[in-house]
């Protein structure tokens, strides 16, 4: 399928078919692609947690506001976390190539910590975009979600140095999901308002 066809097929799924399981090779491919996500200066300030375990997924669903139902129905939940304890993250950075480490140390020395954290979180959103595009290319439906409770997620996943900021449900759409594009056409601002061409 071509990129535009995939973009039209992808939508934020609101109802999943509980009975459909994702083949393990597709999950492995999603992991491998996420691992290759690009980031500024190749800093890679993330952790991607793949949750298929029903018990843990149910606990996370209960900490996901209006997203609880979707997470319980979907076969897989991916949690996207960002480095939050910068002292701890420094140990990871110190193992990265010299040039990258120097760049990062320079940014850290010249930028307020709160701004460094915002910059690191932006990198994680790139990974969400990569995951959304990859999922639909693999024939999987998904829902990006900011509607989660990060502190509760961190407790459930026993995460200390990283902070969960996003989640993505993955599975197969329910036939009766009225939000799928064949039922509810995609809604976007006019193309000419958002795309400019300078030629
Ligand atoms: C960063 C981000 C966070 C989102 N959070 C949620 C969410 O918590 N729950 C939800 O149902 N949809 C969520 N969405 C889905 C958006 O509402 C959706 O992408 C938008 O309305 C466009 O619709 P489409 O994805 O079906 O094309 C989120 C999307 C993004 C990109």
Automatic annotation (TrEMBL):
Q: For the region Disordered, what residue ranges are annotated? A: 177-199
Q: Which domain of life is it from?
A: Bacteria
Needed cofactors, names only, are: FMN
InterPro entries per record = NfsB-like, Nitroreductase, Nitroreductase-like
- Keyword Oxidoreductase among UniProt keywords: yes
Q: Residues in domain Nitroreductase?
A: 8-172
Q: What family name appears in the similarity comment?
A: Belongs to the nitroreductase family.
Q: Which Pfam families does this entry report, sorted A to Z?
A: Nitroreductase (PF00881)
Per the record, where are the segments of Basic and acidic residues compositional bias? 190-199
UniProt entry keywords in alphabetical sequence = Flavoprotein, FMN, NADP, Oxidoreductase
What name does the UniProt record give this protein?
Nitroreductase family protein
Its lineage reads:
Bacteria, Pseudomonadati, Bacteroidota, Flavobacteriia, Flavobacteriales
Gene3D superfamilies, per the entry: NADH Oxidase (3.40.109.10)
Work out whether the entry's keyword set contains Flavoprotein: yes
What PANTHER family does the database record attribute to this sequence? Answer: NAD(P)H NITROREDUCTASE YDGI-RELATED (PTHR43673), NITROREDUCTASE (PTHR43673:SF2)
